[in-house]
Amino acid sequence: MKLTILGCYAATPRTFTNPTSQVLEIKNRLFLIDCGEGTQVQLRKNKIKFSKINQIFISHLHGDHFFGLIGLISTFSLLNRNNDLHIYGPKGIKEIIKLQLRLSNSWPNFELHFHELENTESEVVYEDDKVLVKTIPLKHRIYTNGFLFQEKLDERKLNIAAVQEYEIERCYYQNIKNGKDILLDDGRLIPNNLLTFNPEKPKSYAFCSDTCYTETILPIIDKVDVLYHESTFLQSEETLAAKTMHTTAIQAATIAKRAQVTQLVLGHYSTRYDRIEVFKEEASTIFSNVLLADDGKTFEF
Amino acid sequence: MKLTILGCYAATPRTFTNPTSQVLEIKNRLFLIDCGEGTQVQLRKNKIKFSKINQIFISHLHGDHFFGLIGLISTFSLLNRNNDLHIYGPKGIKEIIKLQLRLSNSWPNFELHFHELENTESEVVYEDDKVLVKTIPLKHRIYTNGFLFQEKLDERKLNIAAVQEYEIERCYYQNIKNGKDILLDDGRLIPNNLLTFNPEKPKSYAFCSDTCYTETILPIIDKVDVLYHESTFLQSEETLAAKTMHTTAIQAATIAKRAQVTQLVLGHYSTRYDRIEVFKEEASTIFSNVLLADDGKTFEF
């Protein structure tokens, strides 16, 4: 699982900081999460192949999370993309994109599928044979979702030495990987655990931005491997955080601790602070395993 | 008159090139012309004060000319702008901007005035005591206007030595600057030309992008001081230029020559070419006074 931060600062794009966007690579799929202005340039700078992005998840319709989407779609079109593109985001996103495509008379030459969200309960929005994506309903000034990306449990791993020892034919391998026991010709029943190893534990990543401190998300993000949680402010701006429905570093760490996650990644920093290390300093007083997102940074989990 | 090029490349923003946007400073006013994605970052990089921009002119609704507008408006709002903002652009631009402001529930705290254009004849769209702006109807794949910025003739300049010699009182100065002759107490009539100098010749700037080669614009841009004309392609791509309704460098130079402009500035380059100097080389075979726009470049006329 590889996370590339394209942008992780709040409010407006600036000379050296970018609004929210990130790419999650999981089981050889690339998921784009949020798409602030300038995301397409950040994708180029980070050498991410445009054609590998087939799913885009938009948390909410504040500009710093989606103003780059129409430009990215237009560029996909100019690059003669063929693949279908799926966009998951709040109701209204389809109208915004289609209006601009209509007025510029430049309908893309690929299929554009909108999956508009309006449910306030967590729901599965994407699923294939390897990965499942659920919404994490957040509490912000407008309708907002985080997203939980879960790897599915792989099939069991064949113990090659064992299957050869029992002289089991190849045609039974898939059954074994699916967990079946095997009846040999001599009548012996070989239990599956002698023929296989456990698959790797599936990993999970939760993206939570933007939101105020809310414990309603705890059951959904319980024990995830990596939690990206917004921490727009420091504790000194706690009142402002509450008023604008954002989170402080201490609050993000509290959520990480209560959800018993393995790793917390902080982001969505207000640009009022000179250095982002202070976010880690404050969060670390509550939760030990804290990393700081920054534009262009990658994390492998 | 000072022109700052924020972006002058066609199609998509890239790591080192930006889509169309420029700032014209004329008579202490700042006019923003077009607003491709990333314009607000380019404004910051070029140290242009956001609060001094009160008029934005949008040529057409292709993304590389206006996808940065909604982000700029949002940033104005976050910066607690108070001044009214006037936007001049094709019909539909109001719907695009208002839809996004409504869905993000972030209506700005300043007045936003839309001046939607649909006339196919040149018309005056802005006028104050110093400056006049007219549309230049262009021929492109969708409804498009260039813009002609004209300084108005200043009042005449007082010849201080002369008015002192004739002992003329201060209360008559404004009449003299307005061109009036003066009757002295001793009965002598002093003609205005003895009391004043001619004002500076008013300057004019024509922005023409995007368009195919069209001579219909010649009467409107006749003898302007500076013509910015798109030259997306070189002559080797003449067929592609015609097909996409763009212009070659040679064609832009031909327009400059026929309109007898003083200075031609080329821009809106396709990124297919390694160096932009070739645009100047080709254009210079037709018209001698050619400058190349480039991102971050300023011109004082």
Automatic annotation (TrEMBL), chains A, B:
CDD domains: RNaseZ_ZiPD-like_MBL-fold. It comes from Flavobacterium flavipallidum. The active site is at D64. It is an enzyme of class 3 (hydrolase). Its cofactor is Zn(2+). The gene is rnz. Binds 2 Zn(2+) ions. It catalyses: Endonucleolytic cleavage of RNA, removing extra 3' nucleotides from tRNA precursor, generating 3' termini of tRNAs. A 3'-hydroxy group is left at the tRNA terminus and a 5'-phosphoryl group is left at the trailer molecule. Zn(2+) 2 binds at D64, H65, D210, H268. NCBIfam families: PRK00055.1-3, RNase_Z. It comes from the Bacteria. Zinc phosphodiesterase, which displays some tRNA 3'-processing endonuclease activity. Probably involved in tRNA maturation, by removing a 3'-trailer from precursor tRNA. Its EC number is 3.1.26.11. Zn(2+) 1 binds at H60, H62, H140, D210. Keywords: Endonuclease, Hydrolase, Metal-binding, Nuclease, tRNA processing, Zinc. It holds the Pfam family Anti-Pycsar_Apyc1. Belongs to the RNase Z family. This is Ribonuclease Z. InterPro entries: RibonucZ/Hydroxyglut_hydro, RNase_Z/BN. Homodimer. One of its GO terms (molecular function) is 3'-tRNA processing endoribonuclease activity.
